[in-house]
């Protein structure tokens, strides 16, 4: 069963899925690499991935976590540039791969070019808004909002974020030690549990309430 598409119409998604070549990916596998030619796009059918940006000084930023129904690598294909970020599988993933030429041809034939360009612009604005928001917040609210933004939606109040302290810190510009302290406070509130390289939201409504209050961990 095809997942619900994120940010594109069901018609466009099904058109692309029908033309894509199925592929399986292991957890930890690099699906797209920053700087490589944008030779194809991927449609994420199952599993989660993370998008990472490596800055010139070597610092790594976590840009986003994406789940089923996401189109990956289309920005570089539409813009005619190299890959702007590295995409790594968090879980074992199933994808459909579509060459850049065939992808662009399908968009022209279906009249979906404008739809995909609007989607790309929305994603860029979302990223800018997130960076501006987190830069102005203290550590507690920053970590809370990062957990909510990085969690792939699922049923129920428990959500496996799939990321550890270092990666959450990469998303919000905080050290691993600072993130560990904020997660410890959230654990004490019964809002999250943590294991090595993994954070699980155990009380999603309360985490949302903390984010709304702006206080983060009280």
TrEMBL record:
Cellular component per GO? cytosol
- Give the UniProt keywords, A-Z: DNA-binding, Transcription, Transcription regulation
> Is Transcription regulation given among the entry's keywords?
yes
SUPFAM superfamilies from the entry?
cAMP-binding domain-like (SSF51206), Winged helix' DNA-binding domain (SSF46785)
> Which Gene Ontology molecular function entries are recorded, alphabetically?
DNA binding; DNA-binding transcription factor activity
Q: Which PROSITE patterns match?
A: CNMP_BINDING_2, CNMP_BINDING_3
Among Gene3D superfamilies, the record links this protein to:
Jelly Rolls (2.60.120.10)
Give yes or no: UniProt keyword Hydrolase.
no
Q: Which residues form a coiled coil?
A: none
Which residue numbers delimit the Cyclic nucleotide-binding domain?
27-107
Name the Pfam families on file. cNMP_binding (PF00027), HTH_Crp_2 (PF13545)
Q: What is this protein called?
A: Crp/Fnr family transcriptional regulator
């Amino acid at each position: 069963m095809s997942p619900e598409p994120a940010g594109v119409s069901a018609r466009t998604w099904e058109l692309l899925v029908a033309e894509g070549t199925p592929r399986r990916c292991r957890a930890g596998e690099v699906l797209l690499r920053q700087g490589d030619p944008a030779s194809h796009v991927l449609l994420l059918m199952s599993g989660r991935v993370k998008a990472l940006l490596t800055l010139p000084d070597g610092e790594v930023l976590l840009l986003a976590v994406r789940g089923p129904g996401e189109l990956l690598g289309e920005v570089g294909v539409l813009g005619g540039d190299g890959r702007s970020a590295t995409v790594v599988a968090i879980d074992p993933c199933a994808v459909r791969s579509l060459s850049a030429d065939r992808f662009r041809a399908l968009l022209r034939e279906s009249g979906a070019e404008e739809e995909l360009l609007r989607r790309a612009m929305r994603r860029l604005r979302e990223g800018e808004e997130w960076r501006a928001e987190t830069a102005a917040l203290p550590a507690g609210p920053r970590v809370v909002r990062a957990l909510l933004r990085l969690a792939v939606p699922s049923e129920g109040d428990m959500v496996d974020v799939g990321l550890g302290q270092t990666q959450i810190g990469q998303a919000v510009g905080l050290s691993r030690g600072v993130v560990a302290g904020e997660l410890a406070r959230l654990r004490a509130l019964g809002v999250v549990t943590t294991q090595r390289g993994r954070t699980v939201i155990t009380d999603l409504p309360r985490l949302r309430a903390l984010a709304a209050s702006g206080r983060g961990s009280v």
